[in-house]
Amino acid sequence: SAGPAGRPARGGGVGRGPGDWRRNVWRPALLVALSVGLFLLNAGQLPLADPEESRCGLIVHEMLAGGDWLLPHLEGRPYYDKPAPFFWLAALGQRLTGSVELGGRLVAALAGLGAVLVTYAWAAALWGPTAGLLAGAMLATSGEFLFLARWYRMDMPFTAAMWAALWWFWRCQRRRPGGAAPARAPTAAWLGFYAFTAVATLFKGPAGLALPAIIVLAYFLLGRQYRAILGFFRPAGVCLYLLVALPWYLVVALRHGDFAYEFIVRHNLLRFAGGGNFGHTWPGVLYVPILLAGLLPWTIFLPGAVIRYFPRRWRDRDGSPAVLLLWLAALVPLVFFSFSRTKLSSYILPVFPPLSVLMAGLVAGWVNSAKPDRLMAHGARALWIMVLLLPLVPAGLEVWLGAAGPWLAVPVGVSVLAAAAMRRSLRRDRRGGFVAWAVAAVVGTFLYLIAHSAPVGYERMSTRTLARLVPDPTGVQVCFWPARKFSFVLYTGARQTETFHRSSPDGLRALARLMGSSRRVYCLVSGRGQLEGLRRACPGLVHVVAGKGRSWLVSNRIGPVGQEAPARLDRPPDSRPGSRPGTNKLAGGATPADSGAV
To answer: Does the predicted model carry a pTM greater than 0.85?
Structure first.
């Protein structure tokens, strides 16, 4: 199905028999093992980070505590931002695993695994099983994709469903061997596309339908298949889409009269076109460096994929329909969200799978060929240099976190050994071994980051450690100055909290009055400057319990042990010698249960 230069045939692949599948089953099995290890290692131990993960975890907590399962609620208020199905799955995951952290991350990890397997299937059908294995491995080890496959959010399930819909469309639309016209697939064969777009709509809203529809429409127009546009809208498929996607939206709209405006208009149309106070507004061109950084370390092959596969002339745009569809699947979301008024780096996650297929086709064509390839010769040198530079990632991260130590010798050793093996493989013209050693070095570096660097980083992004120092929240007043932290609310279990905003002219005075009241108060203060301002506002009433990063937990009462030096909890509790989860030793050897506020 591929020419000498690795370009797919016009049909975009030919069918393979059961024997081929049995011989190649080890490749998807290897991708499953790789994805499970990368996506789930430490996923249940790392705390939920502020604000996105903790917000989702708090919504699921309210559902499981007897809240409204039809419409998500956040701290008792309707949450119109996203549909409910992701939170249902996260709640199910939490019930099955018994872990607040693992519940939603398991949903994201399984969705990421699905996207990896679909990527394998697409690339294997285009360029063979080696390309499929490379495409799946590149996707699983792309920095941003890996991060979001471990993130308690609905971005990964949405991306996996949309990617599966496009893959199903291509399966039904691809041409026969020899460039014959597309076979007219029966209506039943199209139902998968409509079902997957409906699932994507249930995860993130109208974009689950809009993006695949724009991609398919552009594919038909650029491929000059004008009659196929009307034929694509199969009544049975449309009915299936409505049957799967519509019921939840309809029931919620009938029950909550303001849902249509809040969700459709405010949280989707205004978020895209502007007018809502959502923030995250920056020039769309910045998505380009975000994409290049998110694809690391495989970004070095993206220019080669553009040179080798992007049509150079307008009349060649439909020379390979599968490649045309892949480029559209990558470019449409990138352009679409570049015009959005509200921007988040996770919005362009759907771009990663199609680019992984294209880059894998380039590398697999070089691996499977004995001919010299000048383009890939430059790419191989760049990959070798990239492997040598890999240890700079964990080193820079740990220096920034203040956690650098002798363990950095591990990624350095892995990188040096892999680079030596790559050089030896290249001298012997063992191209497959060269790429395999590169993948091994990347996987080793990411495993080190997950096992050693991530605990420190996630502790900095979360307030779980400080929250565990608060005694029974039913007997104390929990408040924030000046920023609210959802992870603190989640891990303290406090039902009644109060936030004193810096923008309010009376915020600091109101907090000072609360600190001087007869109630026992625990306040999470963000920033040393705010801590000093609070001390000046109520002298003698602010006692620091512990500090972590730029967050400080203070109280207006002194524990029975007496005032001692405040504890610094910049390191995760479980990583300190002699500590056990949940004990959180403070200065002087006292525990929260013994001393209260230190």
So the answer is: yes
